[in-house]
Amino acid sequence: MSALPVGATIGILGGGQLGRMLAVAASRLGLKTHIFEPGSAPPAGDVAHAVTMAAYTDAAALKAFAASVDVITYEFENIPTSALDILEALKPIHPNRNALATSQDRLTEKTFLRDLGLTTAPFAVVADAASLDAAIGTIGTPAILKTRTLGYDGKGQARLQSPDDATTALDAMAGAPALLEGFVDFTHEVSVIAARNPDGAVACYDPGENLHADGILRTTTVPARLSASQRTDAVLLAGQILNALDYVGVMGVELFVTSRGLVVNEIAPRVHNSGHWTQNGCTIDQFEQHIRAVAGWPLGDGTRHSNVTMENLIGDDMDRVPEAATSNAAIHLYGKAEVKPGRKMGHINRITGPA
User: Fold this and answer.
1) Which of 234, 220, 231 is nearest to 267 (CA)?
2) What is the pTM (predicted TM-score) of this model?
């Protein structure tokens, strides 16, 4: 892949906040962005060069979109295969289809990670009550039953404290193929934001420590509580995953920190909520890094120059924005017209000191 020239256009599937911040990063580099989004008034549309609002089933719109861009990337994983079939025949897609397929199905993802020699939570396929009972017999409880696809921010999950919860948990899956994951005894969760370009160069940011509430990320803090060896292990395993997938772009790798080492929770083939701290903690943030990678440019230096705590603004947290605008707080709002419970409306990066 040759590097895109200044003035080239990057197509982005999805017009949410991640697409918005990717478009801003691309504009700083003299690159244009074209957003493809089925919904009306996408936040990314405020800052992109062009927007197509059409369904992913609209073949004519997809073909016209592909004809207008030089390369295609995406801000979320759950893009219909039929749309990707049309687009891939016309323009390169980064990250590649293999990476997308791996992350779209929890069974495929867990199997891929296990086959790399990485540690995951114990897991078993669940299709019905009998297979759930068998999985509980093997894995035990507490455990979490998760839909294999389409789950995010705690959705598509049901916790089992004991085998008595099996029926309720299975009903919550509404017939969707599922996976039972065993409980991991961890002290805290961290994530590594890692990037790889077409030349195979890899750059990783410092791991951030994540705190969730109700299945939604609330804060990410850097530096994370990790020993030097744990920090090295986290970065090396992220690079291992990128190379195994021949990946191009930025990926988020979520890890559990346990007394027996790091356990991979999941991977996200895109810029990641837990990497927002890089906007104010690094010279080159995760969004510019992703644009550089998919454009075939050299990766930037992801060295952290500041300690940062990133806080998501969710729902009515927007009411606190004026008082949160302190001298050490960088506010990033997503331009969403309607405040809803559980909806990510923006985030704040607070500088807590030099790195």
Assistant:
1) 234
2) 0.94
